[in-house]
């Protein structure tokens, strides 16, 4: 029984990868839609930690549509702004307090995870610290340097580093002299205009080829005009789950139009659906563009497979 479940899972994962990698713009719009929905829907095979059982827990296959895998050398955090109010990481860590999260949502260093990307031979998009914030003040600087060393060494992957501690990120990258090559994308969360105006300026002081914004959960309209020339990618999405705060669709349309006008890659993750991963179209179109970093095959393949027109994955800025 175990063997047949394993075989079934392997087939599903292979089919899912085929859906991601196929140049779906070459087939009919209906088939594109089914292919994409199915590819995303299969993320539901992962448990609530986003972990696929077939990999024995060594590979964390993310439910988040704009990445392949999450990597958590640290877990735990503290809330800093309205975007944290319904933090999924906090909910999961507190619910699973025990063997998986002995300290719940308190900051927990996981040194046994530090070298994991070196074991993953296939290039991946990796969301760093999906269960924490890498620039939390309680994460020691020498530990941060070790995380960075792994990212630099395992350079066949593309890393998505996203923080709400933008000032600390800018300060530490400068003072610790952390490299910012094209395969390490640096981003800040901006759920409303106030957070955008506070967090994007320090991001723009970092000389990184790929700087990005995650406007999720989107809690108000955002004018990114002053910043777009320095950005390569914008993600947005509405809040899901119980207690979600619905976004107005015009807030998404505005971000889409700002990106289109500036040539910035735009990724609309979802609207206001209760369940994460649903309601992914914006005005009837799936907008899943990625920045083109030139040398990183996995990101480029995904950009081609999931983008409705080539224009939308041109690197901006
Ligand atoms: S910064 Fe991120 S991980 Fe930390 S509490 Fe806020 S939403 Fe959660």
Keywords:
317 residues, alpha/beta, TIM Barrel, two-stranded antiparallel ribbon, 9 helices, 33% helix, disordered N terminus, disordered C terminus
Structure, explained:
The structure is a single chain. The protein has 317 residues and is an alpha/beta fold. It has nine helices and eleven strands. The chain has helices spanning 2-21, 29-41, 88-95, 116-119, 141-153, 166-175, 193-204, 249-262, 297-306; strands at residues 69-71, 74-75, 108-109, 125-128, 158-163, 184-189, 211-215, 233-237, 265-270, 281-282, 285-286. Strands 1-4-5-6-7-8-9 form a seven-stranded parallel sheet. A two-stranded antiparallel ribbon has the order 2-3. It has a two-stranded antiparallel sheet with strand order 10-11. A hairpin with a 2-residue loop joins strand 10 (281-282) and strand 11 (285-286). Helix 1 (2-21) crosses helix 2 and helix 6 (166-175) packs parallel to helix 7 (193-204). The radius of gyration is 19 Å and the shape is globular.
Topology (SSEs and partners):
Elements: H1 2-21, H2 29-41, E1 69-71, E2 74-75, H3 88-95, E3 108-109, H4 116-119, E4 125-128, H5 141-153, E5 158-163, H6 166-175, E6 184-189, H7 193-204, E7 211-215, E8 233-237, H8 249-262, E9 265-270, E10 281-282, E11 285-286, H9 297-306
Parallel strand pairs: 1-4, 4-5, 5-6, 6-7, 7-8, 8-9
Antiparallel strand pairs: 2-3, 10-11
Helix pairs in contact: 1-2, 6-7
The structure holds iron/sulfur cluster.
């Amino acid at each position: 029984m175990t063997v047949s479940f394993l075989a079934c899972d392997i087939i599903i994962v292979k089919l899912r990868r085929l859906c991601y990698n196929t140049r779906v713009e070459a087939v009919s719009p209906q088939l594109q839609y089914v292919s994409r929905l199915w590819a995303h829907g299969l993320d539901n095979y992962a448990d609530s930690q986003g972990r696929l059982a077939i990999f024995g827990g060594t590979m964390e296959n993310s439910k988040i549509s704009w990445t392949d895998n999450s990597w958590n050398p640290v877990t735990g955090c503290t809330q800093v702004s309205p975007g944290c109010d319904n933090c999924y990481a906090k909910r999961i860590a507190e619910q699973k307090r025990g063997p998986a999260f002995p300290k719940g949502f308190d900051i927990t260093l996981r040194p046994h995870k530090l070298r994991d990307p070196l074991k993953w031979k296939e290039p991946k998009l990796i969301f760093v610290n999906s269960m924490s914030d890498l620039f939390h003040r309680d994460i020691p600087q020498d530990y941060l340097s070790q995380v960075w060393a792994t990212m630099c060494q395992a350079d066949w992957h593309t890393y998505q580093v996203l923080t709400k501690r933008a000032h600390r990120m800018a300060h530490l990258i400068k003072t610790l002299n952390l490299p910012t090559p094209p395969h390490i994308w640096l981003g800040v969360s901006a759920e409303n205009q106030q957070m955008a105006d506070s967090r994007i300026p320090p991001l723009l002081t970092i000389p990184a080829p790929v700087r990005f914004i995650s406007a999720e959960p989107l809690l108000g309209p955002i004018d990114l005009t002053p910043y777009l020339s320095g950005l390569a990618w914008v993600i947005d999405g509405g809040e899901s789950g119980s207690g979600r705060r619905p976004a107005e669709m015009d807030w998404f349309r505005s971000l889409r139009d700002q990106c289109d006008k500036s040539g910035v890659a735009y990724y609309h993750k979802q609207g206001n659906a209760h369940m994460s991963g649903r309601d992914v179209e914006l005005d009837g179109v799936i907008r899943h563009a990625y920045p083109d970093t030139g040398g990183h095959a996995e990101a480029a393949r995904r950009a081609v497979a999931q983008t409705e027109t080539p224009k939308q994955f041109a690197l901006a800025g």
